[in-house]
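Folding Query — how this chain folds
Tokens — whole-number codes for backbone shape
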Amino acid sequence: TKIVPPDKNGAYPVNWRSSYRIDFNNDGADNKNVRVGHNSVTYSNQNDELIVAVVVEDNNSVSERSDVAIYIDGNRVWDNRETSKYYVSGRTAWVAVEKIGNEITVNVSYAGVQKSFVSKNPDAELRKITWYGAAYKEYLPIANNFFRAINVKKHNVLNWQDIPNKFGSKDILLYGKNVDNIYCTLNNNQGLQYRDPGSTLIYAPPGLSTMFLSWSDFATAPIVKLKGRA
């Protein structure tokens, strides 16, 4: 268990982001199909109540099958079971948890999972982070079940407002073409956050740039190829 310290003003994190790496795999072991185990990271508040927990485990003693489960406010809110995609080597992958107000986002990067949930306790203070690894009964344990590293960052957010990204009555949405680029204006202002990467040139400054892609929840993740020109 890691005890989260207060900042220089004596305040504990209420809005925060944490990332960590784990090992959960049977690399180098024999009898892989019968090995089982549990790996979880739990974030708790000032009353030792669960804020959020991320669980990775293998409960199948016949085949290599991994599960992931997410808990919010002590309740299981999402899981995905009996797959092979949650085995991981911590040298190359990480898990991130972020809390802003009452919204908690969990990102299991190596498995392509990102989920957001609403907590009933937006003012909960982060006080403890606990890693728990276990085997089950007499079964052979997962060969590699480790907690590698963790980072916690306190967001200094005093005043914030979640402004929904939606259109209002009588808003004017206009698409047009400028040479080879497709543009979009809202009420005659070029202010929309999302652009079509297939028809828009993206200008980036020298150095490292990060680009985010979004797609509808009923669609599959697109295959994207970027071409750069200096």
Q: What stands out?
A: The chain has a mean pLDDT of 84. The chain has two domains: 2-154, 162-229.
